[in-house]
Amino acid sequence: MTQTMIAVIGGSGLYDIDGLEDARWQAVDTPWGAPSDDILTGTLEGVAMAFLPRHGRGHVHSPSTVPYRANIDALKRLGATDVISVSACGSFREEMAPGHFLIVDDFIDRTFAREKSFFGTGCVAHVSVAHPTCPRLGDACFTAAEAAGITIHKGGTYLAMEGPQFSSMAESKLYRSWGCDVIGMTNMPEAKLAREAELCYASVAMITDYDSWHPDHGAVDINEIIKVLTGNADKGREMVRRLPALLGADRAPCPHHCDRALEYAVMTAPEKRDPALLAKLDAVAGRVL
Ligand SMILES: CSC[C@H]1O[C@H](OP(=O)(O)O)[C@H](O)[C@@H]1O
Ligand SMILES: Nc1ncnc2[nH]cnc12
After folding, report:
1. Which of 72, 87, 235, 280 has a C-alpha 20 to 30 A away from that of 268?
2. Number of domains, the chain
3. How many Å apart are CA 183 and CA 205, to the nearest integer?
4. CATH number, domain at 201?
5. What is the mean pLDDT of the chain?
6. What ipTM does this complex have?
7. Is 87 annotated as a binding residue?
8. Which of the residues are catalytic?
9. Which residue segment(s) compose the domain that 137 sits in?
10. Where would I find the Nucleoside phosphorylase domain in this sequence (predicted)?
């Protein structure tokens, strides 16, 4: 039985969490560079916790320049077992209104200017992301959010766009016609990298706006988003506070195999592997290399 460490990656508007015992911000070095910021660690009801502000405190990193690989590596290196992404999102559904939350369970990745894998020349691996989120972890977030009085929806597809500009109206209508439920700029490649690092990953969308498709709401407006963000961030903290009691300090193997994703994924013959890349993969893939 391993020990649970719940890691929260806070998106726009969520730059810290409260109530941790023995709280301290720690710098973590990684072979992939520096993470977005120091990482807040501590315990909550006897469960180890880590919090990383995705854009850094003061919102320094843009969606395209968030150091996604360093962030996931740093969390893995600290001992994280479960990663919960909490993100501001636009909605493509009338019934998913600003202020509501959604447990995302699938993605369409339209990002194009980011490093998307820990693997490459000298150590090639192919993990499955057919089911990119962990249902066990998503269910815990759903239960925690409901208990916190948040209006929360279960199951939906997140369109990951490059940004930083918001979508045109034609794009917004196109993504809606594809069956997407929400849109954001950061959950890819984060979710793919978490899978490569054998971490359970859940994504909680905190809805801030209707993007630009809605005839009654017009174009997406950052001032309106910022107004909704503060309330959403407080709700996000309320949800996080309830997670340790639901997940517990002792962790059994993930029933969905997230923690064994690399079992048969590495293709490169042992004698052809690049020692320099293997050294960088110590935290992420040390279990199988
Ligand atoms: C503040 S609006 C656009 C910004 O908000 C979202 O950030 P995050 O996913 O980190 O919560 C969106 O992806 C954009 O980066
Ligand atoms: N409409 C939107 N598009 C992309 N990212 C967002 N984050 C919050 N609202 C968004």
Report:
1. 72
2. 1
3. 9
4. 3.40.50.1580
5. 97
6. 0.99
7. yes
8. 209, 211
9. 2-285
10. 6-242
Distance (Å, rounded) from C-alpha 215 to C-alpha 89?
Answer: 18
Query: Is the shortest distance between the CB of 198 and ligand 2 below 6 Å?
Result: no
Contact 179, 60 (CB under 8 A): no
The residue nearest atom 10 of ligand 1, judged by CA position, is 11
Single-letter amino acid code for the residue at 156: G
- Tell me: the pLDDT tens digits for 172-187? 999 999 999 999 999 9
Ligand that lies nearest to the alpha carbon of residue 187, given by its number in the listed order: 1
Residue type for position 7: A
pLDDT at 120 over 90: yes
Q: Is the pLDDT of residue 242 over 90?
A: yes
Residue 218 — pLDDT band, cuts 50, 70, 90?
A: confident
Residue whose pair of structure tokens reads 């910022």 in the numeric block: 226
Q: Band the pLDDT of 1: cuts 50, 70, 90.
A: confident
| Annotated binding-site residue? 210 | yes
Q: Print burial letters for 158-182: b (CB count within 10 Å at least 16), e (below 16).
A: bbbbebeebbeeebbeebbeeebbb
pLDDT the model gives residue 93: 98
**Is the pLDDT confidence value at 56 over 90?**
yes
pTM recorded for the entire structure:
0.98
Residue with CA at minimum distance from ligand 1 atom 13: 185
**222 CA → ligand 2 middle, Å:** 9
For the chain, what's the residue count? 289
Ligand 1 site: residues with CB under 6 angstroms? 11-12, 54-55, 63, 87-88, 163, 184-186, 225
- Locate 260 and state its tokens: 């064994």
CA of residue 201 to ligand 2 center, whole Å? 21
Contact by Cβ (8 Å): 119, 288: no
